[in-house]
Every structure is written in structure tokens, then in C-alpha cells.
Design goal:
The protein has about 575 residues and is an alpha+beta fold. About 35% of the residues lie in helices and about 20% in strands. It contains 20 helices and 25 strands. The strands form eight sheets. Strands 2, 3, 4, 5, 10, 20 and 21 form a seven-stranded mixed beta sheet that branches. Strands 12-11-25-24-23 form a five-stranded antiparallel beta sheet, sandwiched between helices. Strands 1-8-9 form a three-stranded antiparallel beta sheet. Strand 6 and strand 7 form a beta hairpin. Helix 10 (about 235-250) packs antiparallel against helix 20 (about 550-565) and helix 14 packs across helix 19 (about 470-485). The radius of gyration is 35 Å and the shape is elongated.
Length: about 575
């Protein structure tokens, strides 16, 4: 009797508990179970592409996957032997049984697909927890093969992106690279990071035991928005050719490095910005190195005489045809200055002084030009100023104000010494002459296109400003064409007139003394209908003088440009200002 009562009481208690679970706590327990299965999955946005002016892809993000393993599930895994009853829902290797269980079995199945060692994989899956990264940057094709291994819930893939640079060292440090999180950390990747970066989306749903979404359980989602594409003004073909010529020239002249810039005079667009360095875009070196073409500063040397001559004529102190008697050396305020070559008292016009690149002639002609005026015209041409391209690591150069000049500096600035510039600045300064006295802002970003395909033209930063009058620019252009004619035995572009200026300057070498040489050459082509300015800079070339080293390189690039853009041949020159008297 007592036993029956006890059993009855126990049965009643069970019924009460069952009712409590089903009627009272059932809903909350179901909610808890659903919550435990609910996950938030990130939908990765793709980083925008970087392209050249013609749409050739320079950098792009491609679909990749990170393969994840669940060690706990792997260690509990028992492969299913393949039979007629199992069909494809089984596990085998090359038609044979797996011959293992647990993490070792998973590793044997997965290793051939991932191209990894099974022992290494087994060790990765033998740890604790439910999350282990097995391999990154796996292609979609490999991911599909993994999906056919019937390892759901044990091995799965997370979508990611890999940044690909298709042109190797062509624009290495200029393009820069991204870090492990896909953020631009150098070069154009850094400069345009905000534009290139998309916005990740997400999905919230319940996940089954096999790691797959349970149909109908998605409660929230937001689509990813890919980053915008950036199109540069740089022309891949021009960049490639300029880089090739630079590398060959550095070898020919035993120069440790070279820089070249090609600028469209009509638009201010940069068509090529190259250096001779061999740095792979996206590499660790590219992420830690600023493009030499952007960062390197130097004295322009005698190219600076273009700015001095322009100022003299603009101020009404001289005309290009004015006559001077020029010795090969001169002493002013106790400071002696010499020309590069020994000569007697020469009868040169101001145009002839530029043609012969006479330091002494510039000092004589600049006698009535005040220090403030000398400074103002160098600065008006853009020297020592931010060109507003926004390229990371760009140096503005160095131009001290006139009140900081000593007795020697006040004269050396007349021929491009005692201040520094970079290749972009120097190119745009010479472009003032090509543009009839107007300084136009430079541009390297052409368009930005969002994920929906809407494209927006990017205007240059800054406004065009007049530096000198058109007739002044015409006189200087005429004198620069005489400079080019002076070098025609070594430097010419058949069928085209060229206006140019060479420069040579001493710079600090590795020993800290003025033991190194910068040789540069900047040319406007064609001189009678300016389309391009080409500047080439070489460090320590054998041959030293810019006209004999950087000059021929400039001409080679100019010839390529004339052919590529099918520029009409020049008309004969008939208006040369006399260079002697």
C-alpha cells in the first residue's frame, strides 16, 4: 500500500513537471534554443578598383575565402563509409575508406584540397574551442571542392577579399598597399582609402548542426556596399614605357636612380610618374616606402634660370633680345661665381645666356632684380609649395624667404641653387611657359565611380593663375627652343620642335659632403603647339651634365609620346631670337 502511494505521488510530480515544461517554460526554452542557434554573419564589402585613364586595372580585390575548422566537432567526427545506400553523402579518399576518425580523418579529407600537409592540419584541428583558421585567401574553386567533402558543421568558409596588383613593379610604391584588414596604408591606396573602402553588410539567421542556414529563419539583413572605383590620369602604356627607358638609362649611365614625369600641358593631368626603383605593389616594401618620384627633392640647377629670366622680362628689366658681355667668372660682394666652362668675354643676348646656361650671365642680367623679386618669382612658379595632389610622403621642397639669404644665396638662386624642389613641382613650373604664362593645377585622380556605376569627374584642386604675361612666356619659350637646338646633336625628336632646359647641381652624397650630382632636363613638346612637358632626373650619372644624360632620355620619351598620341609634325622655326650679337 505504502509503495503504491509513493509511486502515485512520483507520477503526479512527473506530470506536474511535464506540464510546467510544456505549458509554462516551453516557450522560453524554445526561444533559448533558437537564440543559441542564431548567428550574425558579416557580408564583406569589396574594395574598389584602381584603374588607369583607359580603364586598365591596376589594383583590384578578388573573391577569396578563409577556411575555418571547428576542433570540437572535428575530434568527434566519424566518417561515413560509402555504400549504395549512402550515395554521395559519405567520405572517401580516391575511392578508398578514410581509415581514420576524429581530427585525423578530417585532415586526411581536407589536406589534398587545401594543398596542405595532413599532419599539420590534424594538429590545427586537435586544439580546444570551436574556431580555428586553417587557411586564408582560398579561391572560390577550392571553396566549392570543400563543400563537396560533406564536412558541414566541421569545416566552413568565411568570405574575404585579396588585393591583387596586376602590373608588379610598374607603379609599386606609388600604388602602395593595404594591411591585413584591407585598409590602405601607403601610396594611392592610402590617399584614396576612404573612397575605395566599402561598407560591410550582415545577415542574422539560425544555423543548423551542419553549419548551414535553416531556411526561413533570417530575421535581419543589410546588403554590403562595395567601395568606389578610382580612375587615375596615368596612362598605363606611357608609364610602362617611361619606366622601361628609366631603367635602361640608369644602367647606361651607371646612375643609382632616376625619376620621370609626363604632364599633359592642356589639362594638368599626370600621364606618367615613374622612378627606376623595383618595388612590387602591395608588398611589404611598398607599404613602407614612399615613391621616389613623389618624395625625392633636389636643387633644379640651371632649369631654375627659366624662372629667373621670366621674372626679369615680366618686371620690365630686360627683353630676351637685350645684349650682354659675359665673362666666365664674376665677383660680387666678395663672392666669386663661375660658368661651367672657361671662355672669354662673350657677346650673348639674354636668350643666349639661357642657351649657354651661363651662371655669370644670369648674375649680370639680374643686377637690378631685388632679393624679394627673385624670391617672389621662384615661388609664383610653384617651387617650395604643396601641389595639392595629396600623394602621401610628398615633400614640398625648401625655399627660404629672401630675408634669410646670405650674400652667396641671393645670387645662386638665380641659377637654380640654394633651394630644392621635386619632379612634380618642377614639371608644373616649366608647364607655365607651355601654357602661355598660366600655372594650372595638376591632377592625378580622373574619375570616381560608385558601386552603382555612377561616375564623377574629379576637378583639379586649386585654380589656374597667371604667373607671367603671354608675350613674356613667348620670349622664354623662344629662348628655351634655342637651348634645345644647342643640344640637337645629342637630343632631338625628328619632325618636332622642342623647347627645353637642362640642369646640373651638386647635392649631398652618402658622406654628407657635396659629392653627388643631380642631372635633370625638362622639355616642352612640341614647342610650336605644346602638348606635353617631360622631366627626367638622374642621380650621379656618368656624363654629369643634364643635357648629355637626362636630355637624351627625355627625347626618347618625347618621341614615344608623339607617336602614341599621333601629334601633327611641327612647322619650321622662323622666329628665333638672336642668341649672340
Amino acid at each position: 500500500m505504502a509503495i503504491g502511494v509513493i509511486l502515485a505521488l512520483m507520477g503526479t510530480a512527473c506530470l506536474i513537471q511535464l506540464a510546467n515544461v510544456q505549458l509554462v517554460n516551453g516557450k522560453s526554452m524554445a526561444q533559448a534554443a533558437a537564440q543559441s542557434r542564431t548567428i550574425t554573419v558579416t557580408l564583406k564589402a569589396s574594395r574598389g578598383k584602381i584603374m588607369d585613364t583607359n580603364g586598365s586595372i591596376l589594383a583590384q580585390s578578388v573573391e577569396r575565402y578563409t577556411i575555418i575548422g571547428n576542433p570540437e566537432e572535428a575530434q568527434a567526427f566519424t566518417p561515413t563509409t560509402c555504400t549504395k545506400q549512402t550515395g554521395d553523402n559519405c567520405h572517401q579518399i580516391d575511392g578508398k575508406p578514410v581509415s581514420a576518425t576524429g581530427a585525423a580523418a578530417v585532415a586526411r579529407l581536407l589536406a589534398p584540397v587545401l594543398g596542405m600537409d595532413a599532419t599539420e592540419l590534424g594538429a590545427m584541428l586537435s586544439g580546444t574551442g570551436q574556431y580555428a583558421v586553417l587557411k586564408k585567401d582560398v579561391t572560390p574553386a577550392v571553396k566549392r571542392k570543400i563543400s563537396k567533402l560533406n564536412l558541414g558543421g566541421i569545416v566552413y568558409a568565411e568570405l574575404s577579399n585579396e588585393r591583387i596588383y596586376s602590373n608588379g613593379t610598374l607603379m609599386g610604391a606609388l600604388l602602395g598597399g593595404v594591411d591585413g584588414e584591407g585598409k590602405g596604408v601607403a601610396g594611392i591606396e592610402q590617399m584614396e582609402n576612404k573612397t575605395l573602402t566599402g561598407e560591410d553588410g550582415y545577415q542574422v539567421y539560425q544555423q543548423g548542426n551542419n553549419g548551414v542556414e535553416i531556411p526561413g529563419t533570417m530575421t535581419e539583413s543589410k546588403d554590403a556596399v562595395n567601395g568606389s572605383d578610382v580612375t587615375l590620369t596615368i596612362d598605363h602604356d606611357v608609364q610602362w614605357y617611361v619606366k622601361k627607358v628609366l631603367r635602361e638609362s640608369c644602367e647606361k649611365y651607371s646612375s643609382p636612380w632616376g625619376i620621370a614625369v609626363v604632364q599633359d600641358t592642356q589639362t594638368g593631368d599626370i600621364l606618367a610618374l615613374a622612378d627606376s626603383d623595383e618595388i612590387e605593389a602591395g608588398s611589404d616594401q611598398a607599404k613602407m616606402t614612399v615613391s621616389r618620384a613623389v618624395s625625392e627633392t633636389f636643387e633644379p640647377g640651371s632649369i631654375g634660370k627659366v624662372f629667373t629670366m621670366s621674372g626679369m622680362i615680366q618686371l620690365g628689366l630686360h627683353q630676351a633680345s637685350d645684349k650682354f658681355t659675359v665673362p666666365d667668372h664674376i665677383t660680387v660682394n666678395g663672392q666669386t661665381y663661375s660658368d661651367a666652362t672657361t671662355h672669354g668675354a662673350e657677346h650673348w643676348t639674354l636668350a643666349g645666356i639661357l642657351e649657354q646656361s651661363s651662371n655669370v650671365g644670369m648674375i649680370i642680367a639680374g643686377e637690378k632684380m631685388s632679393n624679394e623679386q627673385r624670391y617672389d618669382f621662384i615661388r609664383k612658379f610653384g617651387i617650395g609649395q604643396d601641389n595639392r595632389l595629396g600623394l602621401p610622403g610628398e615633400s614640398d621642397g625648401l625655399l627660404y624667404s629672401a630675408d634669410q639669404w646670405d650674400l652667396r644665396t641671393q645670387n645662386t638662386v638665380l641659377f637654380g641653387q640654394a633651394y630644392t624642389t621635386n619632379a612634380l613641382q618642377l614639371t608644373n613650373a616649366v608647364a607655365v611657359i607651355a601654357n602661355k604664362g598660366v600655372k594650372k593645377p595638376q591632377r592625378i585622380i580622373k574619375t570616381i565611380s560608385d558601386a552603382e556605376g555612377h561616375s564623377e569627374e574629379q576637378k583639379p584642386k586649386g585654380e589656374a593663375t597667371r604667373v607671367i604675361d603671354e608675350q613674356v612666356a613667348s620670349q622664354v619659350m623662344n629662348a628655351m627652343e634655342s637651348v634645345s637646338d644647342h643640344y640637337s646633336q645629342f637630343i632631338k625628336v625628328d619632325g618636332y620642335r622642342v623647347a627645353a632646359k637642362s640642369g646640373t647641381a651638386e647635392v649631398a652624397g652618402a658622406d654628407g659632403r657635396l659629392s653627388s650630382i643631380i642631372s635633370d632636363y625638362s622639355a616642352i613638346i612640341p614647342a610650336d603647339n605644346p602638348r606635353f612637358v617631360v622631366t627626367v632626373v638622374l642621380k650621379d650619372p656618368q656624363g654629369v651634365f643634364g643635357g648629355l644624360t637626362a636630355g637624351p632620355v627625355t627625347a626618347e620619351i618625347g618621341e614615344f609620346l608623339m607617336q602614341k598620341y599621333e601629334v601633327p609634325a611641327s612647322s619650321p622655326r622662323t622666329d628665333a631670337i638672336p642668341v649672340t650679337w
